[in-house]
Amino acid sequence: MSLAKYIDTLSTEIASIEESGTAKGHERVVTAFIPPAEKKGPRFLLEGFGDKQFIRMNSNSYLGLSVHPKLIKAEEEAAKKYGVGPGAVRFISGTYKPHAELERKLAAFHHREDCLLTSSAYTSVLGVIVTLCTPETIIISDELNHNCIINAMKLARPKDRKVYRHVNMADFEHKIVESIGQCETILVVTDGVFSMRGVFAPLLTICELAEKYNDMFLRGIVVIVDDSHGVGALGKTGRGTEEITQAKGVDIIVATLGKAFGVNGGYVCSSKEVIRYLRERNQFYIFTNPITQGEAAAGVAAIDILDSSEGRDLLMHLHSMTVFFRNGLIALGYETLASPHPVVPLLVRETEKTAKLVAYLFDHGVLATGLNYPIVPKGDQLIRFQVNASHTLHDLETVLGVLATFKRQHWSK
Predict the structure, then answer these.
(1) How far is CA 102 from the centre of its chain?
(2) How far apart, in whole angstroms, are the C-alpha atoms of residue 270 and residue 45?
(3) Tens digit of pLDDT for each residue in 287-320?
(4) What is the DSSP string of 31-84?
(5) For this structure, is 166 an active site residue?
(6) Which residue, 125, 203, 231, 300, shows the most beta carbons closer than 10 Å to its own?
(7) Is 2 inside any structural domain?
(8) 169 and 225 belong to one structural domain
């Protein structure tokens, strides 16, 4: 059967995406990592650009652990001992000692009873929401929640979906009140840190309101937080949005190993009963291979580092570099948002200008990501800079210097 007609349709769609200026384009291929030297943090080489070195300002590896020698060693040793792949899903024969050890470490780190490893934070969110949702469930969600939460709400087929205005607690409370008598359970779902803007959810208030109305529902209100960008990036000990807001009452935490922990995969932390139920019913877990044994061992090493004096030093440096860079943008006259998180957005608010600035940064050796509609709302187009603990003062001064030149020569044009 020929694909010719279908390919014509796809080609038309691709042309439309490119014409709108929202195409992601071809993926850059990293060919080498250059370790830190003197005043410089790590640099990267890209395929097709020879020996030109790039500063990476678009990495989720907030603590720089993805290239930490202890993680590399742990992964290598586990691969030698257990092999490079699990060879099966968990319940058949794919559970190895590093998987079980990592789950114990993560549960303890988050002060929860148990933990479930998954292949990614995306599938963690899908699995939790779809599995826990019933025909008598209403889901309440922040309007700027991540794409995985939006798709999970669609797949879950709840009785109703309610979306409140971004971090607007009056509107959030209104959504709870209007649900009284309409369902048995409410699933409240929010990002801990909103990844496009670097601001965090008011978890303390969310939990207080959930507790206030919990008894109004037959099966209560369950608070679910996807803190993939918060864990390892916020708080004195890196315990994320819960720590920085001092929230009590988050029932289920979803997060990732692929950002601050520098590895790969996702996880869910909650009570023993919730985790056991997810092991039995979560289709995204049951029928998907786990992360590799080496990745799990590297995850254990990452937690050990974060939960130590070395980790606290990394967090302090990360936080100081974040403040320096955000203040630098403000001093140059750029618009940004107030937050202690290392996602530092530069609000451009125009698709064409966003693309122009990304290209200018690239030409000057800086890797940064522009986010345009429909990833962000129209008028919120931005450059998402991501500071990490491997950046030095010299690195950020270099990036700010490039931005200063662009502002002077091109911003008003």
Answers:
(1) 19
(2) 41
(3) 999 999 999 999 999 999 999 999 999 999 999 9
(4) EEEE--BTTB--EEEETTSTT--BEE-S-S-TT-GGG-HHHHHHHHHHHHHH-S
(5) no
(6) 231
(7) no
(8) yes
CA-to-CA separations, 253 to 9, 152, 188, 189, 191, in angstroms, rounded: 41, 15, 12, 10, 10
CA angle 244, 247, 252 (to 5 degrees): 110
- The verdict on 179 and 164 lying in the same domain is yes
When divided into structural domains, the chain yields a total of 2
Domain termination residue (choose one: 263, 284, 306): 306
Structure confidence by residue, pLDDT tens digits, 344-401: 999 999 888 998 999 999 999 999 999 887 777 788 889 999 999 999 999 999 999 9
Distance between CA atoms of residues 117 and 102, nearest Å = 8
Distances (CA, A) of 84 to 76, 150, 213, 380: 9, 33, 48, 42
195 classed as catalytic: yes
Give the global pTM: 0.93
* Gap between the Cα atoms of 62 and 388, Å rounded: 4
Judge whether 229 counts as a catalytic residue: yes
Helix H or strand E segment including 25: none
d(Cα 312, Cα 305) in Å, to the nearest integer?
9
The catalytic residue among 61, 120, 179, 195 is 195
The one catalytic residue among 99, 105, 146, 229: 229
Residues 34 and 136 occupy one common structural domain: no
Q: Report DSSP letters for 260-295, one per residue.
A: TT-S--EEEEE-HHHHHHHHHH-HHHHTS----HHH
Looking at the fold, whether 182 and 329 belong to one and the same domain comes out as no
**How many CB atoms neighbour CB 93 within 10 A?**
10
Per the DSSP assignment, residues forming a β-bridge with 343 are 386
The 3-state DSSP class for residue 166 equals coil
Is residue 108 left, alpha or beta, with left meaning phi > 0 and alpha meaning psi from -120 to 50?
alpha
Task: For residues 383 and 352, give the distance between their C-alpha atoms in angstroms, rounded to a whole number.
Answer: 12
Determine contact, residues 379/349, Cβ cutoff 8 Å.
Answer: yes
One domain, residues 200 and 150: yes
